[in-house]
Design a protein that fits this description.
Length: 360
């Protein structure tokens, strides 16, 4: 029983009933926030205060909580319409085997510990014990019930949901990477029958990678809209967003490492084979000048040569970096808020555009 509870199952974000439960929990917190906000009269706050309906970070946390399970679920749903059932079964089997590795259990426990530390740090900050922030809905112990409700939500989010989601994604990326391979029989024939399926699996991996991007992007947006100062929160967010870009692209490279190696070998083997056949044809053309029926045979060999050259060109065109444009765009999403912040500041400084003053 203990072993089962520590093993993440693929059904966690694949089955609709689990997604409904996740959404139900989020909407329950939304309802609770609104009820408490009405009771403590902090839906809107005067002066520079930010009430519940004015605080973008509160809604960023909630939206992230909604989007993560939804994206994973629909990524699985789209995949099942594009590949055969045997591959789906192989994904489930590989995921189960990887999830049972001790390293992934350690990763889950470590992620949970980090999440709990983030929860504690955030709670101390919101209680104005460390790095006091401006007056708002949950950042002030003046509204004790709002503070307590937000602690319950953030504990669920930081110490359970996000660590579980992160570990799940790591296991799933490893699973896909292990399946992006060519078997020995696939190496010896053209066209490469599994190529489209491998591309589909890679695209699925990038859709899953998008889940890692969302928290980076939304938290960065929240910092620039709410924390309008250069403090430890904004500095940390900038560092995390830049690191997030490198992590996401590194994850893509990890995702396709087996695919890249296999396609490299495949191209080398088949191009060498075609070059050998072409050399035989050229040798025949040079060495059989006076053979009977030479023209008829020559025409056959020339047609074969044309076919081999076209086949060779198609093999050379096989992309060893599938969906590279999507991977690059996905990877840079975390730093977009940071880049836009400095672009707006530059334009406002040098061109004095008044419209930008409301954005910054």
């Amino acid at each position: 029983m203990h072993e089962q509870s520590n093993t993440i199952r693929i059904e966690r974000f694949k089955d609709k009933k689990n997604i409904k439960r996740d959404w139900l929990i989020v909407f329950a917190f939304i309802a609770l926030y609104i009820v408490v906000g009405l009771f403590e009269e902090n839906l809107f706050l005067p002066d520079n205060g930010l009430g519940l309906l004015e605080h973008i970070n509160i809604w960023i946390f909630l939206v992230s909580n909604l989007l993560i399970p939804l994206i994973i679920y629909y990524a699985f749903n789209s995949l099942e319409h594009c590949i055969d059932s045997s591959t789906i079964a192989e994904i489930k089997k590989t995921f189960k085997n990887i999830a049972e590795h001790k390293t992934n259990k350690i990763l889950l426990n470590f992620s949970t510990a980090i999440g709990f530390c983030c929860f504690v740090g955030n709670s101390l900050q919101n209680a104005k014990i460390i790095n006091p922030l401006p007056f708002d809905y949950w950042d002030s112990i003046d509204y004790i019930i709002s503070y307590i409700v937000s602690r319950v939500h953030k504990f669920y989010l930081f110490a359970y949901f996000l660590p579980l989601s992160f570990t799940y994604i790591v296991i799933l990326i490893r699973t896909i990477s292990n399946l992006l391979m060519l078997h020995e029989n696939d190496m010896k024939r053209y066209p490469l029958i599994k190529y489209d399926q491998l591309n589909t699996l890679c695209d699925f991996g990038l859709n899953i990678l998008l889940v890692l991007v969302i928290p980076f992007f939304l938290s960065s947006c929240g910092v620039y809209f709410v924390h309008e100062r250069f403090d430890i929160t904004s500095i940390t967010t900038i560092i995390i967003s830049i690191a997030g870009t490198f992590v996401c692209f590194g994850t893509y490279l990890f995702l396709i490492k087996n695919f890249y190696a296999n396609i490299t070998i495949y191209k080398k083997i088949n191009i060498k084979k075609i070059n050998f056949q072409l050399s035989k044809i050229h040798q025949y053309i040079l060495n059989n000048k006076y053979e009977n029926n030479r023209y008829e045979k020559l025409e056959i060999y020339l047609k074969k040569e044309e076919y081999l050259i076209k086949t060779k060109e198609k093999i050379e065109e096989i992309n060893k970096f599938p969906h590279i444009v999507k991977a690059i765009f996905t990877s840079i999403i975390p730093i977009i808020p940071t880049l836009m912040q400095y672009v707006f500041q530059f334009l406002n400084t040098f061109f004095k555009l008044e419209i930008l003053e409301n954005i910054l």
